[in-house]
Design goal:
alpha+beta, WH-like_DNA-bd_sf, transcription, transcription regulation, Arc Repressor Mutant, subunit A, WYL domain-containing protein, about 45% helix, Alpha-Beta Plaits
Length: about 325
């Protein structure tokens, strides 16, 4: 897109000082005529681009303007990196263009600013996929301290409350990176003394303090890959309840989209019915899902599921009968 290219042109001029139309065109893989049109567009927009004619000439920006461009802070760079995971960018089909523009911008930054950007990329990951039960956005009072410890590679002492409701316990962590998913912040850290990489929900840190002790990050640590691996382990630990169900063909499309159901083997039983192997989270969730389909779904196995659905259906019928009296 042209906006991406104009941003890249400015970044190149900021980094190199002066470039010819040919040099810019080669770097951006466009024609020199395109670059001339881009320079005209920048001038119309009020960007002070200047052309020096003759040998050794080229396009350049005034020194004062170049200095303002190089003044990007680590926070500003991080905010730009967040664009790549924006729902709006994905919805408009611009994820590839935004990623390309960011890469061009980062390549044109000064060495110090580029290092800040690489730190942000290494230690900050945005998971654009949502949880099934995404609640309100939460950060937690300790987020700023955790972020500082991640950026500075300093150990963190935190009173952490686990999900089972037990009292908070002190943890000594080597924080490697922050992850945000559906507005919920997590920190991936090496827990001492067992030296295992674990995931902690920042909002469950009742107290956090950055220590004076620094640490070396594991060589080659990939935050995004580590996060995906943790998700796989999390899903593997989730409860499973296997069942065989019969679903009306008219409701099959809806059943296949159920968020808490994984559909396995299926077969057409004729008469407008489809039999399928289905994996639910628990017995209770299986009962709730099937009841939601009324006469359009039926449990075939196991027997306890059939009995529970029938029991709940009778209770519903009785409740309505009482209302009618």
């Amino acid at each position: 897109m042209r906006a991406d290219r104009l941003l890249a042109v400015l970044a190149l001029l900021q980094a190199h000082g002066k470039l010819s139309s040919k040099e810019i065109a080669e770097k951006l893989e466009v024609s020199e005529r395109t670059i001339h049109r881009d320079m005209q567009a920048l001038s119309v927009a009020g960007i002070p681009v200047y052309a020096d004619r003759g040998n050794g000439g080229g396009w350049s920006l005034p020194e004062g303007y170049r200095s303002r461009l190089t003044g990007m802070t680590a926070g500003e760079i991080s905010s730009l990196l967040f664009l790549q995971a924006s729902d709006v960018v994905r919805d408009l089909g611009l994820a590839g263009s935004t990623r390309s523009a960011m890469n061009k911008l980062l390549s044109a930054l000064s060495p110090a600013a580029r290092r800040d950007a690489e730190i942000a990329r290494e230690r900050l990951h945005v998971d654009g996929a949502g949880w099934r039960d995404a609640g309100p956005r939460e950060a937690g009072a300790s987020l700023a301290v955790v972020q500082e410890a991640v950026w500075a590679s300093r150990k963190l002492r935190a009173m952490y409350r686990s999900s089972d409701g037990e009292a908070a316990k002190e943890r000594l962590l080597r924080p490697l990176g922050l992850v945000v998913k559906s507005g919920i912040w997590y920190v991936m850290a090496i827990a001492e003394p067992d030296d295992e990489v674990r995931t902690y929900r920042v909002s469950r840190m009742e107290e956090a303090r950055m220590t004076d002790e620094s640490f070396e990050r594991p060589e080659g640590f990939d935050l995004a890959a580590a996060w995906e691996a943790s998700l796989v382990r999390f899903r593997d630990r989730l409860p499973r309840y296997d069942a065989t169900v019969l679903v009306a063909a008219s409701a099959w499309s809806r059943f296949g989209r159920e968020r808490f159901v994984t559909v396995g083997r299926q077969a057409d039983r004729g008469g407008g019915w489809i039999e399928a192997e289905a994996e639910f989270n628990t017995l209770d969730s299986a009962v709730g899902v099937l009841l939601g389909y009324g006469r359009l779904a039926k449990a075939l196995a196991p027997p306890e599921l059939r009995a529970r659905v029938a029991e709940e259906a009778r209770a519903v019928a009785e409740a309505y009968a009482e209302d009618a009296e």
